[in-house]
Design brief:
- The protein is an alpha/beta fold and 290 residues long.
- The chain folds into two domains: 88 residues, no CATH class; 174 residues, 3-Layer(aba) Sandwich (Rossmann fold), CATH 3.40.50.2000.
- 36% of the residues lie in helices and 18% in strands.
- It is built from eleven helices and ten strands.
- The chain has a six-stranded parallel beta sheet, with helices on both faces. A four-stranded parallel beta sheet has the order 1-2-3-4.
- Helix 4 crosses helix 9.
- It is elongated, with a radius of gyration of 21 Å.
- It starts with 8 loop residues before the first strand and ends in a 12-residue tail after the last helix.
């Protein structure tokens, strides 16, 4: 019934496509490339255009036979960044002389935690990478921003080199990122999904060390971090940044100078122009409800 009220549509779930009888733009910020997803995208006569967050996703959809126009608009963050009224609290959590190395995610789990999966497991970071970083730089301290699984929490609760920040409301995440001396992207999963946290690092001017892949392409493009291909390189890059304040400062300044790339107000204008181009008004006097 609702579908009959509109001339154009903007949808975010492929299950909506069979229900519409008018041109739509499909936002695919979290693609799965499943057989059913691709079948719907290929068969819909009303799909005017798709939007994905990175070039790799666009290329894969084209290779799978999706023929509609595909546009790339990346993940975004609010323009404001850290809130001056609340940003001081994370800085007060720092110990004297501490070099803060941070990783933000919705969940931090270990293999023994309920619901553990490669996307949220931090065994590689906590067990393989971090001990070597601390051995080389005793002033370093790892902050895990986000919910922590029960098993992992018990393992790390008394570790002096780890700060379990826990859940932080989304609007306050920039406050904590701004306190990082170095931000991490330790996931080795290869997929065509962009990362909101990488956009947040850039927006907050945080130098990043991460594994090479689609999620860290933004950092590679801007040059605001060190992108690596192996665990040994990862450890060496973190240690290098912690030991070189001038390098951290240069990378931070570069990130801030390019932060407009991920600001929602800038991306929103691009999206609005795209919608106007793909779904043009049919006349000022009789324009459709959109």
């Amino acid at each position: 019934m609702a579908a009959r009220c509109y001339d154009y549509g903007f949808v975010t779930n492929t299950r909506h496509l069979p229900l519409v009888g008018f041109p739509v733009v499909m936002d695919m910020d979290d693609p799965y490339f499943s057989e059913e997803e691709v079948r719907v995208l290929r068969s819909s006569p009303h799909l005017a255009a798709m939007v994905v967050t990175n070039r790799a996703a666009a290329d894969r959809y084209r290779a799978l036979g999706v023929t509609c126009p595909i546009h790339v608009i990346g993940q975004g963050v609010p323009a404001a960044g850290a809130d001056p009224r609340t940003a001081g609290e994370p800085h007060r959590r720092k110990r004297p002389g501490e070099l803060t190395v941070g990783y933000a995610a919705a969940w931090h789990l270990c293999g023994a935690d309920r619901g553990a999966e490669p996307m949220y497991d931090v065994d590689h970071l906590v067990d393989e990478l971090w001990p070597k970083v601390v051995a080389a730089c005793p002033r370093a301290r790892l902050w895990l921003v986000g919910r922590v699984g029960g098993v992992l929490e018990r393992r790390l609760a008394r570790r002096p080199d780890v700060e379990l920040v826990g859940h932080v409301p989304p609007e306050r995440v920039p406050d904590f990122l701004a306190a990082f001396d170095v931000g991490l992207y330790p996931r080795r999963i290869q997929h065509e999904r962009s990362s909101v946290k990488v956009a947040q690092y850039l927006g907050c001017g945080v130098p990043v060390v991460g594994y090479r892949g689609v999620p860290t392409e933004l950092i590679s493009d801007v040059g605001s971090g060190l992108i690596v291909d192996s665990p040994a390189q990862f450890v060496a890059a973190v240690v290098r940044l912690l030991g070189d304040a001038s390098l951290r400062s240069r990378l931070s300044a570069l990130a801030l100078s390019e932060a407009h790339r991920v600001r929602w107000d800038v991306l929103g204008e691009r999206y609005a122009q795209l919608l106007d181009d793909v779904l043009p008004l049919k006349g000022a006097a009789s324009g459709p409800a959109r």
